[in-house]
Amino acid sequence: MPTPIVADNLTVPRSEPASDKQNLIGLSRDAMRDALIAAGTKEKQAKMRVGQIWGWIYQKGVSDFADMTNLAKDYRAMLSEHFTVSRPEVVTKQVSADGTRKYLLRINGGHEVETVYIPETDRGTLCISSQVGCTLTCSFCHTGTQKLVRNLTPAEIVGQILIARDDLEEWDTPPGDKRKISNIVLMGMGEPLYNFENVRDAMLIAMDPEGISLSRRRITLSTSGVVPEIERAGREIGCMIAISFHATDDATRDQLVPINKRWNINALLQALRDYPRLSNSERITFEYVMLKGVNDTDADAHRLVNLIRGIPAKINLIPFNPWPGAPYERSSNNRIHAFGDIVNAAGYASPIRKPRGEDIMAACGQLKSETERGRREKVR
Ligand code: SAH
Ligand code: SF4
Fold first, then answer.
1. Ligand 1 centroid to 247 CA: how many Å?
2. 224 lines ligand 1 (CB under 6 A)
3. Which pLDDT does position 159 carry in this prediction?
4. How far is Cα 294 from Cα 274, in angstroms, rounded to an integer?
5. 372 catalytic, yes or no?
């Protein structure tokens, strides 16, 4: 396998040092309006100023107030006195032989999270994190072996998108397929529905026409099954939903996705049947990790289609991505195809997800911040 590139000579700007000024990135429209008024902006003008500043921050990628040239000089000076526009710090960028890029980012407190960019022929997907670590302990997931350190703020969630756009030199591009980042998936580190408000506020900025301006259909939130928050996600965020299903009976799902002990398969399926946005054009994605000898039999495939009957759905089969010490193996290609054929014959699309960026440990479920791990190993 060709060796991946580790780039230290980054072209991406580093973040400003921590400061007591308020960061404007990640503030909702209302919050920014209030902050601008508190800093002396006239109430009548505040709404317009928010639109102008959003344009600079989210569409042009500007982080220096001096570059916000449609604002008066003394207004820019006022802004820089009270506020910053700061991103997380890029620690390393790795580029896989297949073009996948992984960014290791440092956030306040010295914690680290990872963001992955996956270029494909018809789209480019940015996989972002919502937490440092995870409270859940799915047994096949590398992040699940790292304790939850903390939730990411809206600024840190949106900041991941801005950093990738800096690196890909994608500013001022109209929305759509042609963008290098045409899609966002909340499939990095963490359980997004356990950081609901921050994820929501960040995604509202990602979808806003004056923000990053991505269609809500191009954003997918993946959850392990936090049942009470699923309906709320439909209502308050409105993006596409993916469910980490992974097993067709409660005993197996209890082992793989322990949140199943709290909300079992039946409860989860009921929440999906009640999902406000369910329709044939807005199907739910069921993610199903293929683990050799654990959940990959023909009987599992038949049970799966019986369980989800009536739910407009697509089944995404994910070949297991190994990590050091993982207690599972990937199902064989033949097994994955045979499983997919059964699901397909029942009328469901069942694409097999191609592992990307494996040489840089960037594939699904392989993320875990090195320094947190290193630190804990040292302590031990
Ligand atoms: N916490 C959320 C989102 C992050 S994980 C969730 O669990 O849905 C994104 C997807 O990768 C989930 O479907 C997860 O189950 C899957 N995944 C985790 N570890 C994996 C691994 N080692 N190989 C393949 N997929 C994995
Ligand atoms: Fe957390 Fe998702 Fe990994 Fe489970 S699969 S441990 S919910 S990140």
1. 13
2. yes
3. 98
4. 30
5. no
